[in-house]
Write a structure and sequence with these properties.
The chain has about 220 residues and is of the alpha/beta class. The protein is about 45% helix and about 10% strand.
């Protein structure tokens, strides 16, 4: 997929959401102060895509450390979990606009800038994304996806339409249906009037998966 076919924008969370933003995804590890989830208008909170705490603290938005930050952060993005999230973003961006939302004051040197560049340029190469490995079967992938979508909503419910939007980059409609039923049977997922919600056991499983991503380069 060529760069011009991938629609990726970036925007501070403190700026008002607009219809032209398309699908808004928060990529910070920490939630922005003073902003409610309703006001943020995001479809998913992919906190695991944010740089590790060690890297973020080291960088500290010091201009002379930017190149080193980019190099180390791109290495962190090679973790399988992050490759799954990136593949989901790439899948959406191939058909419609996505906006990577961040909280940093610096609008030119932040993780969203790196992620946008990564999505635009790695998408030119068929092997640019590692995607799921043998550890990440359909159930693990869907658990992770439910978690990041639910995290964007105050009631921790993943709307069915938004869950399908993100999951469809990696799972067929048949796989999504079968895997949803599997997670319900396992007691990891339950239906609500608004969509899907992780059970306490499902939350534990999702947290276990998120810990598999290294926190430093």
């Amino acid at each position: 997929m060529a760069e011009h076919d991938v629609r990726v924008a970036i925007k501070r969370i403190y700026e008002k959401p607009e219809p032209s933003d398309g699908t808004r995804v928060l990529v910070d590890r920490l939630w922005a102060r003073g902003i409610s989830k309703e006001a943020a208008g995001i479809a998913a909170w992919m906190k695991e895509l944010g740089p590790s705490s060690e890297l973020r603290i080291w960088f500290d938005h010091q201009p002379d450390r930017w190149d080193g930050f980019v190099e180390q952060y791109r290495r962190e993005l090679l973790a399988p979990l992050r490759q799954i999230l990136l593949a989901e973003l790439q899948g959406i961006a191939g058909a419609a606009t996505i906006t990577l939302v961040y909280g940093a004051r610096d609008t030119k040197e932040n993780e969203a800038v790196v992620l946008r560049d990564y999505l635009l340029h790695e998408s030119d190469h068929p092997d640019g994304f590692d995607g799921p490995d043998n550890t990440w079967d359909a159930a693990a992938t869907l658990l992770l996806t439910v978690a990041v979508v639910a995290a964007a909503h105050h009631d921790a419910v993943a709307p069915a339409s938004e869950l399908k939007l993100f999951a469809s980059a990696l799972l067929t409609a048949h796989e999504l249906d079968d895997t949803t039923k599997e997670l319900v049977t396992r007691g990891d997922l339950r239906a609500t009037p608004e969509g899907w919600q992780l059970t306490p056991h499902g939350q534990q499983q999702a947290q276990h998966l998120s810990r598999e991503a290294p926190t430093s380069a």
